[in-house]
Amino acid sequence: MPEKNETIQQTDTEFMVPVAAAYLVVCITWWVSKYLAGEKWESEEKPETDHRWLDLLMMFVGIVGVFAAGQAYRAGLRIPDLPQSWQYLTVAINLCIPFLPLFFVLLVRRQSFLTIWISWRAIHWKLATGILSAIVGLATWLTIGNQWERLGEIARDSVTLHSLAHAMPVFMEGVAIAFVFVRLRWVAPNWLAILIPSLLFAAAHIPRFTETDQSLLAVAIFVGFNTAVAAMAFTTALRARDIIWIAIPHYIMDIAIGAFH
Question: Which of 135, 97, 110 shows the shortest CA–CA distance to 251?
Fold first, then answer.
């Protein structure tokens, strides 16, 4: 694997431009799908609440719970490894456990999955759009980054147990962003509701990025770049009110940039 992929993210232009272009194409693909699918893309209903300030408070409860569980994970508090043939299942479970506080909030507030943008309506369109957007997004990344020689490697990595163990955690990142956005939108304008979870998305990746020595400027550029990419993708997700489709290109792009290594 090329040297620059040994770290989860890089701050140089060679890295940022292909990734930004790839996610732009991913978003464009959704808009084309929306045009072709029409009303099939609309979710059953727009999630609303009669207790927006209570839900904002519960949102913070959920966020604090996620970060606390994440810190416990990093401190080594995890489910013990299962026998070797099941070790990747253990990895997946341990990576998903930190997101459980979000579902606790849903349970307490008796809220549906629509409040985290999960709906099974037109699931075939969502999966098809996700797969197509992942293909064109990856093709864009490979072309601009001049890395077509890695296509076979990325294809193989996408179906290894090591990578698949990270598929659900990648999906759960989308769940967390939707959870925050929906509740912020109940009390704030759309631009602020997009900015805050985008910043949280970037901040959640800082610990892994700083595992190697990084300057303050590099961290700032890293946060700014990830916030911008997340905001671009999330603006499209806002229109879709769905996170199923975008989890697929997110997973493939994470493999391409070496996020699971």
Answer: 135
